[in-house]
Amino acid sequence: MLQIQGVHTFYGQIEALKGVDVTVNEGEIVTLIGSNGAGKTTLLMTVCGSPRAAKGKIIFEGEDITRLPTHELVTRGIAQSPEGRRVFPRMTVYENLQMGALRSDPRYFNDDLEMSFAMFPRLKERKDQRAGTLSGGEQQMLAIARALMARPRLLLLDEPSLGLAPLVVRGIFDAIRTINREKKMTVFLVEQNAFHALKLAHRGYVMVNGKITLAGSGAELLANPEIRAAYLEGGH
């Protein structure tokens, strides 16, 4: 479904991505793990067109989307829940979800709204509340639900567990699993929480300093001594 081929991305003179190759097949959850500053978020942002790839190609469902404007990606079936949630703080929960559905067929709005509320019942309780007054976990639920309102075939999730309590993190990862299994949605997940991400993912990649250094199934990477030592608290 998504092929990232030899992508190089720069911030000015700084090369953030150094020939990255990643494949996400239809129906998979694929995760990208790595330390802070490794280039994980840059890769997702490059897929979305900001910044642009200086070299290489990004192919989605057989089409080269490397140079397409971001809004065109939404119409083709890609939606992102960005790092730091970035909800519209002065808008209500309901209005945020309306924004997510702007480029979708309005015939499906009510059904999609009910799906979001079924997946995240707390949002239904808070639907008339301003998003900026929600807890961090509730804002993350809203960011994911807002992306789902675009009816994507590929969902890009950037650090959904960042800054959240462990109990909330488990709920978020359970929701991602449900999205994949029940909605048959393909998910590309960028995450620092390697344990949860690799337990969830069908396959994973490890990024170090803008390069992919390891790849394998989630179970293989979870059992890898190097990964355990580097990302799983010394293997515990």
From TrEMBL:
GO biological process, one term: L-amino acid transport
Any one Gene Ontology molecular-function term assigned to this protein's record: ATP hydrolysis activity
Cleaved signal peptide residues: none
SUPFAM superfamilies: P-loop containing nucleoside triphosphate hydrolases
ABC transporter domain ranges (all copies): 2-234
Nucleotide-binding in keyword set: yes
Keyword terms: Amino-acid transport, ATP-binding, Nucleotide-binding, Transport
Pfam families documented for this protein: ABC_tran
Record's keyword annotation contains Ligase: no
Family: Belongs to the ABC transporter superfamily.
Protein name as it appears in the record: Branched-chain amino acid transport system ATP-binding protein
